[in-house]
Structure formats: C-alpha cells, structure tokens
C-alpha cells in the first residue's frame, strides 16, 4: 500500500522531458499542421469522474497545474488557464505566467476570452471525448463566429511523448454479501425502466453506474473503486461491456458469461455505435461524451435524453449495502479513535507536522487489516491551513502543528463493505474562547441536521439552512455544501442527492447515504469542520424520514461550550458519545479504552 501523500509527480521528475515552453511550442506546431487556431484542454476524462488516471492529466502536462478543476485554452500567440477560487493561489505557484494568463473559471469567461483573443472564422479544436454535447453547444452559441472542430485525436496525446498508458487494474467481483442483489436482477430492473420509455438500448458511460449494475469493482484509480469501461444495456436485459480484457481474470470472464454480459475490446465502443442500428437509444446528456452523441446522430438513430437509470437505485442503498456501510464505519471508527487518542497524547510535541498526522491516521487504518485504500487524499490542516477548504498538504506547505490552535483532519477510506468520510477538528494546546464559540456554532448546526425529521419529498436544499442557522445568527457562514452523497465501496462523492444552498430537485430518500459537514473558516487563522455520514431512514412508522448517524468517533469536548447549547443539543452529544463508546470500546486496547471513556464522558 502506497504512502497516502506520495503523489506521483510524473511531470517534473524526468529531466529529459521538454520544458513547459517547449511543450507549448510543439503543440503550436501541431495546431499549424492541423489548420487550427486553438485547442481546448479541460481537466477531465471520458468517464467524467472526480479522479482521472495519469494518462488523462493533460492539463497538468501542458500547464504544470495539478488542481482537480481547471481548463486551458492554447492559441497561436498566447494561452490561458482558467481556475476557480480554490485554486487561484496554487495556479500562480505552479504555472509559468509568461506562458499562461491566469483567469477565473466559468463557461462565460472561457467564451469571452475566446471572443476577445481570436479573429472571426478561427478554427478551435477540441477532443470530443472530454466534453459533453451541451458544453460544445454552449461554445457554438456564445462564439458563433468560430468553427469548433472535434479532433480525431487529442492534440496533447500527439505531442506527449511519455504519456502513461491507460490503467489496466484488475477487475474484482463485488460479492453478493456486499451488493445484496445479483446483477441479473439489477439488469432486469433497469431494462424494464428503459422499456417503459419505449427505448431499445441505453448507453452507459459512467463507470460507477456500470460497476454498480454488474456488481464489479476495479483498481484503476487510487482513491476510488471503479474500473474504466463503457456499456450498453438493452431492453431485454442483455449488456454489451467495453473493457480492456487485460483487466479480466478467467473467473471474471466466466462470471460475465454467466450473467449474459458480452465483453468487447474497449476501443471497439465507438465503432460498435457506428454499427448500431437500434431505432431508439437513450443517453444521459449530462455525462455522455460529445463524440458518442455525434456518432449516434450520424446513424440517424432517434436519441432520447434521459437520466442514467442506474444513478438513483445506486444512491438508495439496500439492506446489505447499509449493513456494509455500518460495518465499514465501525472499522474506520476504531482506526480514527486510535488516531485521536494517539494525537491527544502526542500533540504537545511541537515537531509534529501535518504530514505526520496524515501518515498516522493512514497507519491506523492500515492496522485494521481491512483497508483497500483511501477514499480521497487526507486533508490535514493546522491553524491557517485548516481555513483552506480543499487544503492538500505537500512537502512545501507542510507545517508543524500550531500550538493553542485548531487542527482539521478530513479523511476517508475504502473497505470492501463500504466507503467512509469523516472530519474531526481538535484543539492543539489550549483553545481560545473564540475557537470554542465557533466550534459550538458549527456543532449546533450539525446536531440540528442530525436530529431533523422531514416529510417524504424534502430535498437536501430545503434542509441546508438547519446546518447554517446558528452561524448566520452570528454573522458567519461557510463557502461549501453541507452534504454530499457517498457510495458503497465506490466514489466518496456521488449523486444525485446533496445538501446545499444550490437547489437540487432530488428528494432525500430512505437508504441514501449523505454527509453532514458544516464548517467555519477564518482565513489566516483556523478552520473548523464536523463531518459524520448519515443514512436516510423512515421515522414515525414511515410517515416521516430522519437520519441515522453512521460515523463513530468522539468529538473534541474541549471545544464545546455547553452554555451555548440547549438541553436537547447536550443530550444529542451525550447520547452520540455513549454510542461511540459502546461500539468501539470492545475493539481498542486498554489504554485507548480508558482514553475513550474520558473522551466520551457526559457534558452538562
Ligand atoms: Mn465529505
């Protein structure tokens, strides 16, 4: 198992690689040869996931920028890199501003930059695998004077000499004890859904949908469990799967035969669409690549836009999946609690750094013997670093733990039975009255959401205010969502539900797993976030819904100001801590058990 912080820097480590300036000039030669005036470089791959494999880090290759969101436009005499507010600082550090103008990221900014910087009639190339049809339509509408050209091959791939290969991680079967429903049954259900819409076949381009449908997982990426593939499901429940056969053991191959899944080479996907003579085909326009859509249109098939039919059933976990999520959280709770006890004992060591903390929590997770990997890179932010919401500690940014300040640790793991995501904020040394008040206001929001009962049909958007109310009353807020869906041994961020200021029509439904993670960040000083995962479950005999908290780890009592809390809120903390103690004590050593006893003793 790799060190969680050992991010492979494949781009700057090789001295033989061309410099950034050389890369740009080689790309520009290529633009000339192809009769293009510019090329679009998004930070995405054809699978639209949060994490991309090294071969798809084209934005990093051409710009040096390593953030998880960004977009470059390269034209003949200049180039621009568009990043959002999270990454302004990082981009300025990583990117040569002689080569790239740094710009704020939004579709409007990209199109207006194109409008200002290119002459009428300019030809702008793009890779149709990396954009959705609606994105390209937006460019055409906003920049009608240009021609947008879907290139046969990605120009970065053509100039990137040592581009890594596509990952070929082994496919593993997701056992029935974890999935709860056999793949044939899922395929029947999805097939009948598309039949209802009078559609012959549905194109699936999200690997997480396909992995859920076929009860498989993969090892292509570091933080998530998908295997990169495409599929078509037909209304008679047959499935055509496009995947690199190198990933398939004999067992997996015979499994696919047994469940009526026809396996094809990954590269054949687009060709097979050309041969596809179904009359009516469903796609999800939100995530299908432009190239797929174009290919289908050329075949004069009738294309129906609908939501990927796997997304909602995948989000509504069944009994086995929920049992798995509970057991994964017990295992993870043991690891996190061992970590918190260790930290409490060692945090006065002034040499301890953010990286030490991230390594330690990883070590405790590994000691469970069940760890499959982390579910995202650990966020370990001391003092002012805690105020950077998506802080990723590097050797350069690493700092020793600030004394008399706060440490924010947001981390999660993958186990066969489930996926976890937990944030704890702890005082290092003596917290100030302000630290305690801010923490308590965040906690009050967390509790208000945890205790909420709500009728069916309620959306996360409608509940969001519960988590913010006590901050708002003090003139405070936080600039991120309150909750995201979480997969079962799958993506740590999954839809369609969330809890957010932004409207989302998806109602919270029984079986969904979602995070409850309000926070508060004081720039330059400290950050606070309290995150537990919860299950949506029926309440009051099924008339209402409520949350069951999954995450098991103590909250730092030294940061709680009980005078600011109601008796119901205090009772919630005491009841939660009692449960944490009951569940975890039998699984930790005597020393940690006695620490846990004290860490979970009642407040009043
Ligand atoms: Mn989270």
Structural write-up:
With 604 residues, the protein is of the alpha+beta class. It has 19 helices and 28 strands. The strands form eight sheets. Strands 4-3-2-1-5-6 form a six-stranded mixed sheet, with helices on both faces. A six-stranded mixed sheet has the order 12-11-10-8-13-14, with helices on both faces. Helix 12 links the parallel strand 13 and strand 14. The chain is globular, with a radius of gyration of 25 Å. The two termini are 44 Å apart. The structure holds manganese (II) ion. Manganese (II) ion binds at residues 421, 484, 515, 517, 531.
Features:
binds manganese (II) ion, disordered N terminus, 604 residues, globular
Give me the secondary-structure topology:
Layout: H1 20-33, E1 38-42, H2 58-63, E2 71-75, E3 79-83, H3 88-94, E4 101-104, H4 107-117, E5 123-126, H5 133-142, E6 147-150, H6 155-159, E7 172-173, H7 176-179, H8 183-196, E8 201-204, H9 207-214, E9 216-217, E10 230-234, E11 239-242, H10 250-258, E12 261-264, H11 268-275, E13 280-283, H12 290-298, E14 302-305, H13 311-315, H14 319-346, H15 354-367, E15 373-374, E16 379-382, E17 405-411, E18 413-415, E19 418-419, E20 422-428, H16 433-450, E21 453-455, H17 460-472, E22 483-485, E23 494-499, E24 513-516, E25 519-522, E26 526-529, E27 532-539, E28 544-549, H18 567-584, H19 590-599
Parallel strand pairs: 1-5, 3-4, 5-6, 8-13, 11-12, 13-14
Antiparallel strand pairs: 1-2, 2-3, 7-9, 8-10, 10-11, 15-18, 16-17, 17-20, 18-19, 21-28, 22-23, 24-27, 25-26, 27-28
The protein binds manganese (II) ion.
The site of manganese (II) ion has 5 residues, from loops.
